[in-house]
Specification:
156 residues, 2,3-Dihydroxybiphenyl 1,2-Dioxygenase, domain 1, four-stranded mixed sheet, two-stranded antiparallel ribbon, 4 helices, 6 strands, 18% strand, disordered N terminus, disordered C terminus
C-alpha cells in the first residue's frame, strides 16, 4: 500500500489518487464570509490555527463545460439542494435574499450574496447527481424470491 498523504492518515487512506477537494474562495472580507458559512449555512469546520476555519462541504461533483467563443476559462461554485423554493425560504428566515429562480434545462438556479465573498449559486439539479450514484451502488442487493424459498427449505 502506498504511504498516506500525511502522518496519522493511514486509517482513512483511500487508494484512489484523489480523495477530496479543497476549494479556495478569495474574499475581500474573509472573516465575514467565514461567519456566513459558520452561522448562516451552519457548515461544520475545523480551526487550522489562529481562527482560520476550513469548512466541511456536503457531497460534491464536478462538471466540465466548453468555453464559449470570446470567453476565458473560469471556475464556478454552486451549492446544490433538493428543493430550491424550500432552500430560498430557509435562507430568507436568516436574512439572506436570493435572486429570482431561473429555469434551466439542467436545474433550477438562484443566487445569493455571501458577505465579503460575492455571489454564489444555489441550484436544484434536474439531472442525475453523481454523489447519489455512489450511494445507490452501496445498497445491498435485495434477495430474490428464489433465495428466500431456498432459505425456508433449508430451515425445515
Amino acid at each position: 500500500m502506498p504511504a498516506p498523504f500525511a502522518p496519522g492518515l493511514a486509517e482513512s487512506y483511500n487508494p484512489r489518487m484523489i480523495n477530496g477537494i479543497h476549494a479556495l474562495i478569495y474574499a475581500s472580507d474573509a472573516a465575514r464570509a467565514r461567519g456566513f458559512f459558520k452561522d448562516v449555512l451552519k457548515l461544520d469546520s475545523v480551526n487550522a490555527g489562529d481562527g482560520w476555519l476550513i469548512f466541511a462541504l456536503p457531497p460534491a461533483e464536478v462538471g466540465f463545460h466548453p468555453v464559449m467563443e470570446g470567453e476565458g476559462e473560469r471556475h464556478e461554485m454552486y451549492f446544490m439542494c433538493k428543493n430550491v423554493e424550500a432552500s430560498i425560504r430557509q435562507l430568507a428566515e436568516k436574512g439572506v435574499r436570493c435572486s429570482p429562480i431561473m429555469e434551466a434545462g439542467w436545474g433550477r438556479l438562484t443566487q445569493f450574496e455571501v458577505p465579503g465573498a460575492g455571489k454564489f449559486g444555489l441550484y436544484q439539479p434536474l439531472h442525475p447527481v453523481a454523489h447519489e450514484k455512489k450511494k445507490q451502488s452501496r445498497k445491498p442487493a435485495r434477495k430474490s424470491r428464489h433465495s428466500r424459498k431456498s432459505n425456508k427449505a433449508r430451515r425445515r
